[in-house]
């Protein structure tokens, strides 16, 4: 195995090929071949992960950027990710990283214990495995999550949720929160635009909620592809029926990128209409993203409608929660983790460390 590689955990051999089981794609690799994500490779008949301890993107972000609105609002989060992704989204908003090869990019040497040390020294309350998808570097993300929790930091995944069962079990037991992309609500959308499948994503979302990971969902609305009222209604109904009304749902605006340059930006009215549909279907906390919209960025009490947390962009403008968990007017408990003991940094800052 090459000096920059490390043996991966999730694989077996079938018909002379190494089969990666980190995600449902199950890439079968002949000697020297890479998987679809280009982060995992058959080296000498064993599966190597090429990115362990070597993130290609490291930055401090406001946690609202993930987006997480009900988890430690107003704090900063150390965010790390590698190049490469296990989905093939034609609309990828981050394609310069997801379609890149990790060994062609600058990387920081950052073993798991150093992730925790760096987050602490940067004053972050949490660490996110993000940017492309932690599934492709799941061994590293899991070990870093363990080290971060030991250091008193919260752990977050920002992910498409397209992950193998064994890898999911190992990683998610060390996660406190996740923002999971629900990219559309039909198998057709996933097949044609993400080269993946919807069913395993829904399974992961249910798994995460059931196992106590605080989940928020994000759907990027792409004009003409996944923004139909029926699809949004079906997604919202599924959320309420399978997860309950308290899982926050974000609808965010698409901008033309990667292979969908001919599709226009998402109009603001599409996002507002989606939010209205989800609220009408019983999702209690629905937000709009990539759009300045006071109403769509505010947390309102589901009990009495009182505006509780006001935001502008990625900054928290006010937080009126009482006792870090309830509405001061009607006493309704607001779902989330709002503990002010977490270190609070000036929201809105972002600086790259790599
Ligand atoms: S994680 Fe990468 S190599 Fe493994 S199955 Fe998924 S796409 Fe293939």
Question: Any overview of this molecule?
Answer:
About 3% of the residues have low confidence. The strands form 4 sheets. This protein has a 9-stranded mixed sheet. It folds into 2 domains: 44 residues, no CATH class; 296 residues, Aldolase class I (TIM Barrel, Alpha-Beta Barrel), CATH 3.20.20.70. Helix 3 runs parallel beside helix 4. It is built from 8 helices and 18 strands. The protein starts with 5 loop residues before the first strand and ends with a strand. The chain is α/β, with parallel strands linked by helices and 354 residues long. Iron/sulfur cluster binds next to loops.
Order of helices and strands: EEEEEEEEHHEHEHEHHEHEHEEEEE
The count of strands amounts to 18
What's the architecture of the largest domain in CATH terms? Answer: Alpha-Beta Barrel
Q: What ligands can be seen in this structure?
A: iron/sulfur cluster
> What is the molecular shape?
globular
How large, in whole angstroms, is the Cα Rg? 20 Å
CATH topology of the largest domain: TIM Barrel
Class from secondary-structure proportions = alpha/beta
Strand order of the largest sheet: 14-13-12-11-10-9-8-7-18
Percentage of residues in helical conformation: 10-25%
Mean pLDDT over the residues: 94
Main sheet: strands, sense, barrel: 9 strands, mixed
Strand content: 15-25%
| Count of individual helical segments | 8
Quick recap:
By secondary structure, the protein is α/β, with parallel strands linked by helices.
